[in-house]
Automatic annotation (TrEMBL):
Species: Nymphaea colorata (pocket water lily)
Protein name: Aldehyde dehydrogenase domain-containing protein
Classification of source organism: Eukaryota, Viridiplantae, Streptophyta, Embryophyta, Tracheophyta
One annotated GO molecular function: oxidoreductase activity, acting on the aldehyde or oxo group of donors, NAD or NADP as acceptor
All copies of domain Aldehyde dehydrogenase, residue ranges: 2-80
Gene3D superfamilies according to UniProt: Aldehyde Dehydrogenase, Chain A, domain 2 (3.40.309.10)
Lineage: superkingdom: Eukaryota
């Protein structure tokens, strides 16, 4: 059953990628949301794009490469606050 498949997939210590083969899009979306994996491929294999974040769950690592999430490892957020004298709200 779908529930057994999800349970087996999530029982693994790893979670880099998972695959779902089905003709039912509702089943595909339910399984994809339920499986703890960094990438879920539906009716295809090895079709990631460079703008899709890629990384694993659990023992398959952490962090993301590619896409906007991949840039987070190289960025630092900074807030700069400067009073604006003679502004309408001062």
């Amino acid at each position: 059953s779908m529930e057994e498949g999800i349970a087996k997939a999530n029982k693994s210590s790893y979670g880099l990628a998972a695959g779902v083969v089905t003709k039912d899009l509702n089943v595909a979306n339910t399984v994809a949301r339920s499986i703890k994996a960094g990438m879920v491929l539906i009716n295809c294999y090895h079709m990631g794009a460079f703008d899709c974040p890629f990384g694993g769950y659990k023992m398959s690592g952490f962090g993301r490469t590619f896409g906007l999430h991949g840039l987070d490892n190289f960025l630092q957020v900074k807030s700069v606050v400067t009073p604006l004298f003679n502004s309408p709200w001062h």
